[in-house]
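Shipment paperwork, digital attachment
Item: protein structure file
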Amino acid sequence: MAPITLDMIRRRAEHNEGMVGNLEEIALHQQEIEKIEALGQICRHLKILYMQNNLISKLQNLHRLKELEYLNMALNNVTKIENLQRCESLQKLDLTMNFITKASLLTVHTLDACPKLDDLYLMGNPCADFGGYRAFVIGTLPQLRRLDGKDVTPSERILSKQELPRVTERLMKELRADGVDIEEASRVSDARDLGPDEDDIAEVLAMPEDERPWTAATRVAEQREFAAQRDANEESKREHNKRLFNPAGTKKQPRREGFPDLPDDLDDVKQCNEPGLTFRLDDSDDGDAVVLDCVVGKYMDTSLIDVDVQTRLVRVLVKGKMLCLVLPEEVKPDASTAQRSKVTGALVVTMPKAFRKPKRGEEKKDEYVVDGGGGVEGSKGGVGGSNPGKGADAKNAKNAKNPRSLIKELGGVSIRGIVRDAHTADIGGFTIAESVRTAAPATPAVQVQVLDSDDDEPPPL
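Attachment content:
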Protein backbone atom coordinates (compact mmCIF):
# COMPACT_ATOMS: atom_id res chain seq x y z
CA MET A 1 0.00 0.00 0.00
CA ALA A 2 1.32 3.45 -0.95
CA PRO A 3 -0.31 6.23 1.09
CA ILE A 4 -0.80 9.65 -0.44
CA THR A 5 1.70 11.93 1.26
CA LEU A 6 2.90 15.50 0.82
CA ASP A 7 6.22 14.21 -0.53
CA MET A 8 4.45 12.12 -3.18
CA ILE A 9 2.31 15.06 -4.29
CA ARG A 10 5.33 17.37 -4.40
CA ARG A 11 7.25 14.91 -6.56
CA ARG A 12 4.31 14.62 -8.96
CA ALA A 13 3.97 18.42 -9.11
CA GLU A 14 7.21 19.10 -11.00
CA HIS A 15 5.27 20.94 -13.69
CA ASN A 16 4.22 23.41 -10.98
CA GLU A 17 7.77 23.78 -9.59
CA GLY A 18 6.85 21.57 -6.65
CA MET A 19 4.25 24.01 -5.30
CA VAL A 20 1.12 22.25 -4.00
CA GLY A 21 -0.88 25.17 -2.59
CA ASN A 22 -2.06 26.34 -6.03
CA LEU A 23 -1.82 22.99 -7.80
CA GLU A 24 -4.61 22.48 -10.33
CA GLU A 25 -3.63 19.17 -11.96
CA ILE A 26 -1.88 16.07 -10.66
CA ALA A 27 -1.33 12.54 -11.95
CA LEU A 28 -1.27 9.83 -9.26
CA HIS A 29 -1.80 6.87 -11.59
CA GLN A 30 0.02 3.55 -11.08
CA GLN A 31 1.13 4.40 -7.53
CA GLU A 32 -0.42 1.36 -5.79
CA ILE A 33 -2.72 3.68 -3.83
CA GLU A 34 -5.46 1.85 -1.90
CA LYS A 35 -7.14 4.81 -0.22
CA ILE A 36 -7.89 8.40 -1.21
CA GLU A 37 -6.61 10.73 1.48
CA ALA A 38 -4.92 14.07 2.16
CA LEU A 39 -5.85 15.64 -1.18
CA GLY A 40 -8.54 17.85 0.30
CA GLN A 41 -6.11 19.21 2.87
CA ILE A 42 -2.96 19.59 0.74
CA CYS A 43 -4.21 20.80 -2.65
CA ARG A 44 -7.78 22.04 -2.46
CA HIS A 45 -7.65 23.84 -5.81
CA LEU A 46 -7.35 20.70 -7.93
CA LYS A 47 -9.27 20.77 -11.18
CA ILE A 48 -7.92 17.59 -12.82
CA LEU A 49 -7.11 14.43 -10.87
CA TYR A 50 -5.73 11.27 -12.49
CA MET A 51 -5.89 8.20 -10.23
CA GLN A 52 -6.34 5.41 -12.74
CA ASN A 53 -4.72 2.00 -12.37
CA ASN A 54 -4.52 1.96 -8.58
CA LEU A 55 -6.14 -0.23 -5.90
CA ILE A 56 -8.78 2.18 -4.61
CA SER A 57 -11.95 0.45 -3.40
CA LYS A 58 -13.98 3.43 -2.22
CA LEU A 59 -14.65 6.96 -3.40
CA GLN A 60 -14.03 9.12 -0.34
CA ASN A 61 -12.33 12.24 1.00
CA LEU A 62 -13.06 14.24 -2.16
CA HIS A 63 -15.77 16.51 -0.73
CA ARG A 64 -13.36 19.43 -0.20
CA LEU A 65 -12.31 19.57 -3.85
CA LYS A 66 -14.89 22.17 -4.80
CA GLU A 67 -13.09 23.07 -8.04
CA LEU A 68 -12.60 19.50 -9.29
CA GLU A 69 -13.73 19.23 -12.92
CA TYR A 70 -12.28 15.90 -14.12
CA LEU A 71 -11.81 12.75 -12.05
CA ASN A 72 -10.27 9.65 -13.64
CA MET A 73 -10.74 6.53 -11.52
CA ALA A 74 -10.45 3.92 -14.26
CA LEU A 75 -8.92 0.51 -13.48
CA ASN A 76 -9.54 0.57 -9.74
CA ASN A 77 -11.65 -1.52 -7.35
CA VAL A 78 -14.57 0.88 -6.89
CA THR A 79 -17.86 -0.95 -6.27
CA LYS A 80 -20.24 1.91 -5.51
CA ILE A 81 -20.75 5.49 -6.70
CA GLU A 82 -20.76 7.68 -3.60
CA ASN A 83 -19.28 10.66 -1.77
CA LEU A 84 -19.18 12.88 -4.88
CA GLN A 85 -22.25 14.92 -3.99
CA ARG A 86 -20.18 17.91 -2.84
CA CYS A 87 -18.03 18.09 -5.96
CA GLU A 88 -20.32 20.67 -7.52
CA SER A 89 -17.87 21.55 -10.32
CA LEU A 90 -17.40 17.97 -11.56
CA GLN A 91 -17.88 17.79 -15.33
CA LYS A 92 -16.30 14.46 -16.31
CA LEU A 93 -16.12 11.19 -14.36
CA ASP A 94 -14.30 8.10 -15.63
CA LEU A 95 -15.06 4.85 -13.79
CA THR A 96 -14.06 2.48 -16.60
CA MET A 97 -13.09 -1.10 -15.66
CA ASN A 98 -14.06 -1.08 -12.00
CA PHE A 99 -16.35 -3.46 -10.07
CA ILE A 100 -19.58 -1.44 -9.99
CA THR A 101 -22.23 -4.11 -9.83
CA LYS A 102 -25.80 -4.14 -11.07
CA ALA A 103 -26.97 -3.40 -7.52
CA SER A 104 -24.73 -0.32 -7.45
CA LEU A 105 -26.84 1.23 -10.21
CA LEU A 106 -29.07 2.27 -7.34
CA THR A 107 -26.33 4.72 -6.27
CA VAL A 108 -26.04 6.47 -9.65
CA HIS A 109 -28.65 9.00 -8.52
CA THR A 110 -26.04 10.56 -6.18
CA LEU A 111 -24.42 12.15 -9.24
CA ASP A 112 -27.57 14.20 -9.73
CA ALA A 113 -26.05 16.55 -7.13
CA CYS A 114 -23.34 17.45 -9.70
CA PRO A 115 -25.28 19.70 -12.10
CA LYS A 116 -22.27 20.26 -14.40
CA LEU A 117 -21.57 16.55 -14.93
CA ASP A 118 -22.14 15.87 -18.63
CA ASP A 119 -19.61 13.10 -19.43
CA LEU A 120 -19.70 9.73 -17.64
CA TYR A 121 -17.86 6.46 -18.33
CA LEU A 122 -19.09 3.19 -16.78
CA MET A 123 -18.07 0.73 -19.48
CA GLY A 124 -16.23 -2.39 -18.40
CA ASN A 125 -18.19 -2.66 -15.13
CA PRO A 126 -20.60 -5.52 -14.31
CA CYS A 127 -23.47 -3.02 -14.22
CA ALA A 128 -23.07 -2.43 -17.97
CA ASP A 129 -24.29 -5.99 -18.59
CA PHE A 130 -27.77 -5.09 -17.39
CA GLY A 131 -30.14 -4.87 -20.36
CA GLY A 132 -31.61 -1.47 -19.47
CA TYR A 133 -28.30 -0.03 -18.22
CA ARG A 134 -28.04 2.90 -20.65
CA ALA A 135 -31.68 3.91 -20.38
CA PHE A 136 -31.55 3.70 -16.58
CA VAL A 137 -28.42 5.92 -16.32
CA ILE A 138 -29.60 8.53 -18.84
CA GLY A 139 -33.07 8.64 -17.30
CA THR A 140 -31.58 9.06 -13.81
CA LEU A 141 -29.07 11.75 -14.87
CA PRO A 142 -30.79 14.04 -17.38
CA GLN A 143 -27.79 16.43 -17.43
CA LEU A 144 -25.59 13.88 -19.24
CA ARG A 145 -24.52 14.67 -22.79
CA ARG A 146 -22.23 11.68 -23.26
CA LEU A 147 -22.27 8.20 -21.77
CA ASP A 148 -19.38 5.82 -22.37
CA GLY A 149 -18.07 8.07 -25.13
CA LYS A 150 -21.36 8.09 -27.06
CA ASP A 151 -23.42 11.27 -27.38
CA VAL A 152 -26.85 11.37 -25.78
CA THR A 153 -29.35 12.68 -28.30
CA PRO A 154 -32.42 14.67 -27.23
CA SER A 155 -34.76 11.92 -28.43
CA GLU A 156 -32.79 9.29 -26.45
CA ARG A 157 -33.01 11.46 -23.34
CA ILE A 158 -36.82 11.73 -23.72
CA LEU A 159 -37.25 7.98 -24.33
CA SER A 160 -35.00 7.12 -21.38
CA LYS A 161 -37.02 9.37 -19.10
CA GLN A 162 -40.21 7.65 -20.25
CA GLU A 163 -38.76 4.13 -19.82
CA LEU A 164 -37.13 4.81 -16.45
CA PRO A 165 -40.04 3.50 -14.26
CA ARG A 166 -40.28 0.28 -16.25
CA VAL A 167 -36.51 -0.27 -16.29
CA THR A 168 -36.28 0.47 -12.55
CA GLU A 169 -39.01 -2.04 -11.80
CA ARG A 170 -37.20 -4.69 -13.86
CA LEU A 171 -33.91 -3.90 -12.08
CA MET A 172 -35.51 -4.30 -8.64
CA LYS A 173 -37.09 -7.57 -9.65
CA GLU A 174 -33.75 -9.00 -10.83
CA LEU A 175 -31.97 -7.82 -7.68
CA ARG A 176 -34.55 -9.45 -5.42
CA ALA A 177 -34.24 -12.61 -7.44
CA ASP A 178 -30.49 -12.52 -6.87
CA GLY A 179 -31.00 -12.09 -3.12
CA VAL A 180 -29.60 -8.54 -2.98
CA ASP A 181 -30.51 -6.36 -0.02
CA ILE A 182 -32.07 -3.35 -1.76
CA GLU A 183 -31.80 -1.09 1.28
CA GLU A 184 -28.14 -1.92 1.84
CA ALA A 185 -27.29 -1.46 -1.85
CA SER A 186 -28.95 1.97 -1.91
CA ARG A 187 -27.23 3.29 1.23
CA VAL A 188 -24.47 5.79 0.38
CA SER A 189 -24.40 8.34 3.21
CA ASP A 190 -22.67 5.98 5.66
CA ALA A 191 -21.41 3.27 3.34
CA ARG A 192 -19.09 0.68 4.81
CA ASP A 193 -15.56 0.16 3.59
CA LEU A 194 -15.90 -2.17 0.64
CA GLY A 195 -12.22 -2.90 0.31
CA PRO A 196 -11.23 -6.57 -0.01
CA ASP A 197 -10.54 -8.45 3.19
CA GLU A 198 -6.97 -9.52 3.94
CA ASP A 199 -8.09 -13.11 4.34
CA ASP A 200 -9.57 -13.03 0.84
CA ILE A 201 -6.33 -11.61 -0.53
CA ALA A 202 -4.29 -14.34 1.19
CA GLU A 203 -6.63 -16.97 -0.23
CA VAL A 204 -6.18 -15.61 -3.74
CA LEU A 205 -2.41 -15.57 -3.37
CA ALA A 206 -2.49 -19.26 -2.49
CA MET A 207 -4.34 -20.09 -5.72
CA PRO A 208 -2.63 -20.80 -9.05
CA GLU A 209 -2.80 -17.85 -11.41
CA ASP A 210 -5.03 -19.64 -13.94
CA GLU A 211 -7.62 -20.51 -11.27
CA ARG A 212 -8.02 -17.13 -9.60
CA PRO A 213 -11.46 -15.48 -9.85
CA TRP A 214 -11.67 -11.97 -11.23
CA THR A 215 -12.49 -10.01 -8.09
CA ALA A 216 -11.23 -6.99 -6.23
CA ALA A 217 -9.19 -9.26 -3.96
CA THR A 218 -7.54 -10.82 -7.01
CA ARG A 219 -6.54 -7.44 -8.37
CA VAL A 220 -5.01 -6.42 -5.04
CA ALA A 221 -3.20 -9.75 -4.71
CA GLU A 222 -1.74 -9.62 -8.21
CA GLN A 223 -0.70 -6.00 -7.77
CA ARG A 224 1.10 -6.88 -4.56
CA GLU A 225 2.85 -9.74 -6.32
CA PHE A 226 3.93 -7.40 -9.08
CA ALA A 227 5.17 -4.85 -6.53
CA ALA A 228 7.20 -7.50 -4.70
CA GLN A 229 8.76 -8.68 -7.95
CA ARG A 230 9.52 -5.10 -8.97
CA ASP A 231 11.17 -4.38 -5.63
CA ALA A 232 13.27 -7.53 -5.98
CA ASN A 233 14.36 -6.47 -9.47
CA GLU A 234 15.28 -2.99 -8.27
CA GLU A 235 17.27 -4.42 -5.38
CA SER A 236 19.10 -6.72 -7.79
CA LYS A 237 19.81 -3.76 -10.03
CA ARG A 238 21.18 -1.76 -7.11
CA GLU A 239 23.43 -4.66 -6.16
CA HIS A 240 24.62 -4.87 -9.74
CA ASN A 241 25.46 -1.17 -9.74
CA LYS A 242 27.43 -1.57 -6.53
CA ARG A 243 29.22 -4.63 -7.87
CA LEU A 244 32.94 -4.36 -8.31
CA PHE A 245 33.98 -3.60 -11.85
CA ASN A 246 37.19 -4.71 -13.52
CA PRO A 247 38.58 -2.00 -15.83
CA ALA A 248 41.99 -3.61 -16.47
CA GLY A 249 40.90 -7.23 -16.58
CA THR A 250 43.23 -8.24 -13.74
CA LYS A 251 42.23 -6.66 -10.44
CA LYS A 252 38.93 -5.41 -9.11
CA GLN A 253 38.30 -1.93 -7.82
CA PRO A 254 35.19 -0.50 -6.13
CA ARG A 255 33.37 2.42 -7.60
CA ARG A 256 35.02 5.64 -6.58
CA GLU A 257 33.36 8.00 -4.14
CA GLY A 258 35.74 10.81 -5.15
CA PHE A 259 39.07 11.57 -6.77
CA PRO A 260 42.05 9.65 -5.35
CA ASP A 261 44.95 11.55 -3.81
CA LEU A 262 47.69 12.55 -6.22
CA PRO A 263 51.26 11.33 -5.66
CA ASP A 264 54.10 13.74 -4.99
CA ASP A 265 55.51 13.10 -8.44
CA LEU A 266 52.83 13.64 -11.08
CA ASP A 267 54.84 11.54 -13.52
CA ASP A 268 53.66 8.48 -11.56
CA VAL A 269 50.01 9.18 -12.44
CA LYS A 270 48.69 6.70 -15.00
CA GLN A 271 46.15 7.66 -17.62
CA CYS A 272 42.90 5.71 -17.59
CA ASN A 273 39.43 5.69 -19.11
CA GLU A 274 37.39 3.55 -16.74
CA PRO A 275 33.92 4.66 -18.00
CA GLY A 276 34.95 4.11 -21.64
CA LEU A 277 34.09 7.67 -22.66
CA THR A 278 34.54 9.01 -26.15
CA PHE A 279 36.63 12.16 -25.76
CA ARG A 280 38.77 14.62 -27.71
CA LEU A 281 41.71 16.55 -26.23
CA ASP A 282 42.97 19.38 -28.41
CA ASP A 283 43.90 23.06 -28.47
CA SER A 284 41.21 25.70 -28.73
CA ASP A 285 40.64 27.58 -31.98
CA ASP A 286 42.78 30.52 -30.83
CA GLY A 287 45.47 28.24 -29.39
CA ASP A 288 45.30 29.86 -25.95
CA ALA A 289 43.71 26.92 -24.13
CA VAL A 290 43.52 23.13 -24.01
CA VAL A 291 39.97 21.82 -24.51
CA LEU A 292 38.65 18.42 -23.39
CA ASP A 293 35.36 17.36 -25.01
CA CYS A 294 33.73 14.26 -23.46
CA VAL A 295 30.54 12.50 -24.57
CA VAL A 296 28.82 11.75 -21.24
CA GLY A 297 25.22 11.29 -22.37
CA LYS A 298 22.51 13.84 -23.05
CA TYR A 299 20.23 12.89 -20.15
CA MET A 300 22.84 12.15 -17.49
CA ASP A 301 22.37 14.15 -14.30
CA THR A 302 25.14 16.67 -13.73
CA SER A 303 25.35 15.61 -10.08
CA LEU A 304 26.91 12.34 -11.29
CA ILE A 305 29.83 14.21 -12.92
CA ASP A 306 32.84 15.82 -11.25
CA VAL A 307 35.93 17.48 -12.76
CA ASP A 308 39.39 18.06 -11.31
CA VAL A 309 41.98 20.14 -13.20
CA GLN A 310 45.66 20.17 -12.22
CA THR A 311 48.52 21.99 -13.89
CA ARG A 312 49.58 18.95 -15.88
CA LEU A 313 46.54 16.64 -15.90
CA VAL A 314 42.75 16.62 -15.90
CA ARG A 315 40.44 14.11 -14.24
CA VAL A 316 36.73 13.52 -14.87
CA LEU A 317 34.58 11.33 -12.59
CA VAL A 318 31.42 9.91 -14.22
CA LYS A 319 29.18 7.70 -12.05
CA GLY A 320 32.11 6.59 -9.91
CA LYS A 321 34.46 5.88 -12.83
CA MET A 322 37.43 8.09 -13.63
CA LEU A 323 38.92 9.45 -16.83
CA CYS A 324 42.49 10.68 -16.23
CA LEU A 325 44.52 12.39 -18.97
CA VAL A 326 47.96 13.98 -19.02
CA LEU A 327 47.88 17.42 -20.65
CA PRO A 328 50.27 18.35 -23.46
CA GLU A 329 51.02 21.71 -21.80
CA GLU A 330 50.72 23.27 -18.38
CA VAL A 331 47.42 25.01 -17.73
CA LYS A 332 45.90 27.34 -15.18
CA PRO A 333 43.54 25.31 -12.93
CA ASP A 334 41.98 28.38 -11.31
CA ALA A 335 40.97 29.84 -14.68
CA SER A 336 39.58 26.56 -16.07
CA THR A 337 35.87 26.09 -16.71
CA ALA A 338 33.62 23.04 -17.15
CA GLN A 339 30.33 23.32 -19.05
CA ARG A 340 27.75 21.01 -20.60
CA SER A 341 26.17 21.44 -23.99
CA LYS A 342 22.44 22.17 -23.86
CA VAL A 343 21.95 20.28 -27.15
CA THR A 344 24.10 17.14 -26.80
CA GLY A 345 24.86 17.16 -23.07
CA ALA A 346 28.60 16.77 -23.80
CA LEU A 347 31.06 17.93 -21.14
CA VAL A 348 33.50 20.62 -22.30
CA VAL A 349 36.45 21.51 -20.05
CA THR A 350 38.39 24.61 -21.14
CA MET A 351 41.83 25.01 -19.56
CA PRO A 352 43.82 28.19 -20.39
CA LYS A 353 47.50 27.57 -21.03
CA ALA A 354 49.96 28.77 -18.40
CA PHE A 355 52.55 29.87 -21.00
CA ARG A 356 50.90 31.36 -24.03
CA LYS A 357 52.99 32.00 -27.11
CA PRO A 358 52.60 35.52 -28.52
CA LYS A 359 50.73 35.72 -31.78
CA ARG A 360 52.17 37.21 -34.92
CA GLY A 361 51.83 40.98 -34.86
CA GLU A 362 50.98 41.02 -31.14
CA GLU A 363 52.97 43.61 -29.20
CA LYS A 364 55.01 42.25 -26.29
CA LYS A 365 54.44 44.08 -23.05
CA ASP A 366 57.60 43.04 -21.18
CA GLU A 367 61.26 42.65 -22.20
CA TYR A 368 63.77 40.73 -20.14
CA VAL A 369 67.50 41.56 -20.21
CA VAL A 370 70.62 40.55 -18.33
CA ASP A 371 72.28 43.49 -16.57
CA GLY A 372 76.00 44.15 -16.43
CA GLY A 373 76.37 42.28 -13.17
CA GLY A 374 74.92 39.10 -14.63
CA GLY A 375 71.48 39.46 -12.98
CA VAL A 376 68.20 39.25 -14.84
CA GLU A 377 65.86 42.22 -14.68
CA GLY A 378 62.56 43.04 -16.33
CA SER A 379 62.27 46.37 -18.08
CA LYS A 380 59.50 48.39 -19.65
CA GLY A 381 61.04 51.01 -21.85
CA GLY A 382 64.52 50.66 -20.32
CA VAL A 383 66.89 48.66 -18.11
CA GLY A 384 65.72 47.66 -14.63
CA GLY A 385 62.21 48.89 -15.29
CA SER A 386 63.23 52.59 -15.29
CA ASN A 387 62.04 54.92 -18.01
CA PRO A 388 64.42 57.53 -19.47
CA GLY A 389 64.15 60.72 -17.43
CA LYS A 390 64.06 64.30 -18.50
CA GLY A 391 67.86 64.71 -18.28
CA ALA A 392 68.63 61.73 -20.57
CA ASP A 393 70.29 62.54 -23.84
CA ALA A 394 68.96 61.55 -27.23
CA LYS A 395 71.19 58.54 -27.49
CA ASN A 396 70.08 57.06 -24.17
CA ALA A 397 66.47 57.69 -25.08
CA LYS A 398 66.95 55.91 -28.40
CA ASN A 399 68.66 52.98 -26.73
CA ALA A 400 65.91 52.78 -24.15
CA LYS A 401 63.36 52.37 -26.94
CA ASN A 402 65.54 49.73 -28.62
CA PRO A 403 66.57 47.17 -25.99
CA ARG A 404 68.52 45.10 -28.50
CA SER A 405 70.91 47.96 -29.26
CA LEU A 406 71.27 48.67 -25.53
CA ILE A 407 72.01 45.00 -24.78
CA LYS A 408 74.57 44.92 -27.55
CA GLU A 409 76.21 48.10 -26.31
CA LEU A 410 76.37 46.94 -22.69
CA GLY A 411 77.56 43.46 -23.62
CA GLY A 412 74.50 41.73 -22.10
CA VAL A 413 72.68 38.62 -23.26
CA SER A 414 68.94 38.62 -24.13
CA ILE A 415 66.89 35.80 -22.60
CA ARG A 416 64.10 36.18 -25.13
CA GLY A 417 63.43 32.78 -26.67
CA ILE A 418 64.93 30.81 -23.77
CA VAL A 419 64.48 27.05 -23.48
CA ARG A 420 63.28 25.50 -20.22
CA ASP A 421 65.44 22.62 -19.00
CA ALA A 422 63.80 19.52 -17.54
CA HIS A 423 65.66 19.85 -14.24
CA THR A 424 65.44 23.59 -13.86
CA ALA A 425 61.77 23.64 -14.91
CA ASP A 426 60.82 21.66 -11.83
CA ILE A 427 62.38 24.27 -9.57
CA GLY A 428 61.10 27.21 -11.57
CA GLY A 429 64.50 28.19 -13.07
CA PHE A 430 65.63 28.76 -16.61
CA THR A 431 68.60 27.65 -18.70
CA ILE A 432 70.13 30.58 -20.56
CA ALA A 433 72.25 29.84 -23.61
CA GLU A 434 74.32 32.56 -25.37
CA SER A 435 75.13 32.15 -29.01
CA VAL A 436 78.39 33.89 -30.15
CA ARG A 437 78.83 34.69 -33.77
CA THR A 438 82.30 33.81 -35.18
CA ALA A 439 83.97 36.63 -37.10
CA ALA A 440 84.37 36.09 -40.83
CA PRO A 441 88.01 35.37 -41.99
CA ALA A 442 89.91 38.40 -43.27
CA THR A 443 90.55 38.64 -47.02
CA PRO A 444 93.53 40.49 -48.59
CA ALA A 445 92.73 43.88 -49.99
CA VAL A 446 92.94 44.28 -53.74
CA GLN A 447 95.43 46.99 -54.75
CA VAL A 448 94.44 49.15 -57.70
CA GLN A 449 97.02 51.20 -59.60
CA VAL A 450 96.30 54.91 -59.73
CA LEU A 451 97.97 56.83 -62.62
CA ASP A 452 98.72 60.52 -62.41
CA SER A 453 98.06 62.32 -65.64
CA ASP A 454 101.22 64.48 -65.14
CA ASP A 455 103.59 61.55 -64.76
CA ASP A 456 105.02 59.78 -67.80
CA GLU A 457 105.85 56.64 -65.91
CA PRO A 458 103.92 54.75 -63.42
CA PRO A 459 105.07 54.95 -59.81
CA PRO A 460 107.28 52.15 -58.62
CA LEU A 461 105.51 49.30 -56.97
